[in-house]
Specification:
The chain is an alpha/beta fold. It has 15 helices and seven strands. α2 packs parallel to α3, α8 packs parallel to α10 and α11 crosses α15. It starts with 5 loop residues before the first helix and ends with a helix.
Length: 319
């Protein structure tokens, strides 16, 4: 087992290796093969293949000369207007080396660019369209100004499904001689929440402890609230025992170092397994959302979660 970071080691090197985005890959591959590439905007959650696909496009276009025809900037670090005026413009105005008539600039996390920088960028995209193509990735396309969106072909990436995550796990398990229990696969998928990068990191972390990956091992690494523990908290609450419910909640948060937001997520998932009427489940889900908002805004997590448990106690009493 090497000390190499697996997210880089197992980064797809060609279109056929990218999982979970089949429709997007077909369209992008067709554009790349014909050199008919417009400015591109990749939008979607983290760990779904946006940056990887941009790198594959560049390597397919330029082959061995890709490094001289490619500029990558992380807009969250370099987000001001001067970056667009200097680095981007200087690179864009020069011609590409080789047979491809344009260079490629990749702006990662483009939704972090300031509005002023985005306005400067729209003019650069127009003025240097003959010598340069822009590929931008973002988590939220709504934060990209409309003039830039209208200049780009937009591709929306989705979170990976379980079958896609399973492909990645199978590939790595075969290559690294790992044994992954079926239950552990399910736990890794739930822990990754469709984020391929997080899935690979989880695998590497657990594999460094043991080549046989079990649910308990993954749960230890995840440090998430276990469903069975949250179920105990909610069962006490629904039965009317507020004191025991509160004590179990405190035990989970302090002894296992689980954050309030992680507990909220686990409660939200467990609500639908409770032995109460569907209407009550809907009300409790709404209450969970209110509590999560208060925690995010800075309220004390334990006080807010106690108030949430009180709602479950009242629901169990039919109030």
């Amino acid at each position: 087992m090497t000390s190499e970071i697996w997210t880089e080691k197992y980064r797809p090197k060609k279109f056929s290796q990218v999982v979970g985005q089949d429709d997007i890959i077909k369209r992008i591959e067709a554009l790349t093969n014909t050199l008919n590439i417009p400015h591109l905007l990749f939008a979607g959650p983290a760990g779904t293949g946006k940056s990887t696909l941009a790198l594959i496009i560049v390597k397919e276009l330029f082959k061995d000369t890709w490094k001289t025809n490619y500029l990558e900037l992380n807009a969250s670090d370099e987000r001001g207007i001067n970056i667009v005026r200097e680095k981007v413009k200087d690179f864009a105005r020069t011609k590409a080396l080789g047979d491809v008539p344009f260079k490629v600039i990749f702006l990662d996390e483009a939704d972090a660019l300031t509005p002023e920088a985005q306005q400067a960028l729209r003019r650069t995209m127009e003025n240097y369209s003959s010598t340069c193509r822009f590929i931008m990735s973002c988590n939220y396309s709504s934060k990209i100004i409309d003039p830039i969106q209208s200049r780009c072909a937009m591709f929306r990436f989705k979170l990976l499904e379980k079958k896609d995550i399973d492909k990645v796990m199978e590939w790595i398990a075969n290559d690294e001689n790992l044994t992954i229990n079926p239950e552990a696969r399910e736990t890794i998928y739930e822990g990754s929440e469709g984020d391929c990068r997080r899935c690979i990191n989880l695998l590497q972390t657990t594999a460094s402890i043991s080549p046989t990956i079990t649910t308990d091992l993954v749960s230890t690494i995840l440090a998430n609230a276990k469903p069975k523990d949250i179920k105990i908290v909610l069962d006490y609450a629904i039965s009317g025992d507020f004191k025991k419910s509160k004590e179990k909640l405190l035990d989970i948060m302090l002894k296992e170092s689980i954050s309030g937001q992680e507990v909220i997520k686990a409660i939200q998932k467990e609500i639908w397994n409770l032995p109460v009427e569907p209407e009550i489940k809907v009300k409790l889900t709404e209450k969970t959302g209110e509590t999560e908002f208060r925690i995010v805004e800075g309220s004390d997590p334990f006080i807010q979660l106690q108030a949430l448990i009180a709602s479950f106690v009242l629901a169990g009493l039919g109030k």
